[in-house]
Amino acid sequence: MARTRTTARHPRGVRARASAVLALVTSLALAACGAPTAVEPLPAVTERPTIAPAKVPAPAPEVPPTWPLTGVPGTPDPRPALAVKIENTAVARPQSGLEQADVVWETVVEFEVSRLIAVYHSQVPQEVGPIRSVRPMDPAVLAPTRGMLVYSGGQPGILDLVARSGLQTVSHDAGAPGLYRVRGRSAPHNVYGSPATWWGIAEPGRTAPAEQFAFARRPEQGAAAVAGTPAGTLDFRLSAQSRPVWTWDAASGTWLRSEGGTPATAATGARLSAVNVVAITAPHPNSPFGAQGGAPVPTYELVGEGDGVVATGGRTVAVRWRKEAEDQPLRLFLADGSEARLAPGNTWVELVPAGKGSLTVS
């Protein structure tokens, strides 16, 4: 019996399902092989790290102490400043103790002679003199030190000015200890005294003075050294009778003093010298007080301001001085308004009468 072959036919729907299955399998295979997938981004970080602040403040720099009237390094003695009125006529020279003063002020008094105010603190001379009487300008010069003033005597009216200055007075005429007359010199040029004795009678509460001038830490930082011009000689004409000259001496690093053309020395033979020489030009009117024969006693007007010169290290620089009140220090300023600093060491202040005295720098 003959067999009949039959051919089966797949419907179209079956083929479509097969294609879909194949596409799905292919997609899964590609994913398994590392095809990229969408990744949700991380949130932004906004928190900042916390830094703990330093718990201990930076230590203040240590500034070595200095002597207030010289700026020289050292621990100051608590004793007060001690000012002594010293004669400067020809018969009074050579004086004792001037070479150990921290500051010396030279003033013009009656008869056009000069008188010195020597201020001691860092050194203790064995003896000073010859000691003379007070003058009207002394309170304005010395009141800022709040210290002691030693003198031989004075007129009642001038003594009243000194008494109101707040200074402790030590007077030979009043019988204060430590003042005596020496042999070999005639009166009134023979009153001398002992600084150690005077400091021994300092009133309670009399302590070391405040700084009277601003000082640099090193000589090369002084105002004249930084901003000044070279100078070799300071030729002063304070009056017809007073003509001090200062000459720069590089070997000693100081200005050497002469009285006119004569080298000035102390009683020990030491040459009088200064690290700083300060010229202050100020009005020099007559005071209400009179001297022998009715001669007027002049004074200085030091409350206010005026021109000046600072000489240090063989150089000079112009300054303006200002003094706000009698009991305030006289301060020095440069042209730019900054305070003029002196070099560490002793200072001589030359008070130049305005309109009458002069300074020639060469």
The helix/strand order is: HEEEHEHEEEHHEEEEEEEEEEEEEE
**How would the global form be characterised?**
globular
Determine the fraction of residues in helical runs and give it as a percent range. Answer: 10-25%
Q: What is the CATH T-level topology?
A: YerB-like fold
Uncertain runs are 1-16, 18-37
**pLDDT average, as an integer?**
89
Class, according to the CATH hierarchy?
A: Alpha Beta
**Strands, total number:** 21
Helix/strand-derived category reads alpha+beta
Helix segment count? 5
The radius of gyration is: 43 Å
CATH superfamily descriptor: YerB-like
Percent of residues in beta strands: 25-35%
Topology:
Layout (H helix, E strand, L loop, with lengths): L11 H21 L49 E6 L15 E6 L5 E7 L17 H5 L5 E4 L4 H8 L4 E4 L7 E3 L9 E3 L1 H6 L22 H5 L1 E2 L2 E5 L6 E6 L4 E6 L2 E2 L9 E2 L1 E7 L3 E5 L5 E3 L5 E9 L2 E9 L7 E3 L13 E7 L4 E4 L1
Parallel strand pairs: 1-4, 2-20, 4-5, 14-20
Antiparallel strand pairs: 1-3, 2-3, 6-7, 8-18, 9-10, 9-21, 10-11, 11-12, 11-13, 14-17, 15-16, 17-18, 18-19
Briefly summarize what is shown.
By secondary structure, this protein is α+β, with helices and mostly antiparallel strands.
Write structural notes for this entry.
- This protein has 362 residues and is α+β, with helices and mostly antiparallel strands.
- The chain has one domain: YerB-like (YerB-like fold, 3-Layer(bba) Sandwich), CATH 3.50.90.
- Helices cover 12% and strands 28% of the residues.
- The chain contains five helices and 21 strands.
- Strands 1, 2, 3, 4, 5, 8, 14, 17, 18, 19 and 20 form an eleven-stranded mixed sheet that branches. Strands 9, 10, 11, 12, 13 and 21 form a six-stranded antiparallel sheet that branches.
- Helix 3 (156-163) links the parallel strand 4 (148-151) and strand 5 (168-171).
- The protein starts with 11 loop residues before the first helix and ends with a strand.
